[in-house]
Amino acid sequence: MVLLEITLPDPEATRSFGERLAAILPPGAAICLFGEMGAGKTTLVQGIARGLGIREPVASPTFTLVHEYQSTPPLYHIDLYRLEEAELDDLGLDEYLENEGIACIEWPDKMAVLPSPRLEIHLTGEDGRQARLEAVGEAFEGVRKGFMKSAGSGD
Ligand SMILES: Nc1ncnc2c1ncn2[C@@H]1O[C@H](COP(=O)(O)OP(=O)(O)OP(=O)(O)O)[C@@H](O)[C@H]1O
Ligand SMILES: [Mg+2]
Q: Which terminus of the chain has a lower count of CB atoms within 10 Å, N or C?
């Protein structure tokens, strides 16, 4: 189910969008970030991190595939770009997906099975970006309302 579509004119718009999302995400949320290389997935996670009060810089995990931040709830930034198929089972992703933490997954299509329920964010566009939010499972149906109500929504 498509929840909303929003235009993000610049990187800061992507971050504030993530920040607003962080405020309304249900605990334990799995967020799958779709979009080509450079689409703004990490930028969006930076915004979510900011919304959760994380002050450390957020960059894509390179040597490990998961970065864990001790916010409340914790944030798991997972980037599967470098994942080799054989590694998938050893990664123990379920551990991150089955607790109260917010799991943000870049390149989720590398997973054998996508988490469910999940919030999908599809990022597209060259000059600025468009974000399309889709809910898979009932857990995220409140996100649209919450987002509209959140301060400064401007729409
Ligand atoms: N809304 C936007 N408008 C224009 N540029 C943006 C926007 N959001 C992010 N960017 C810029 O796009 C570039 C790539 O962003 P980012 O690293 O977040 O992409 P990514 O999808 O994580 O890439 P990768 O696939 O390599 O992980 C950065 O320079 C970032 O500042
Ligand atoms: Mg990235």
A: C
| Residue 81 CA to ligand 2 centre (angstroms) | 8
Ligand 1: which atom is nearest the Cα of residue 15?
A: 8
| Ligand showing the shortest atom-to-Cα distance for residue 60 | 2
Torsion over CA: 85, 90, 96, 99 (sign): positive
The ligand placed nearest to the CA atom of residue 9 is 1
Please state whether the predicted TM-score (pTM) of the whole model is above 0.85. Answer: yes
The pLDDT of residue 151: 56
Strand-pair category, 66-69 with 30-34: unpaired
How many whole angstroms separate alpha carbon 19 and alpha carbon 67?
Answer: 18
Least confident of 38-42, 99-103, 139-143: 139-143
Instruction: Please tell me the distance from the alpha carbon of residue 12 to that of residue 20, in angstroms, as a whole number.
Output: 12
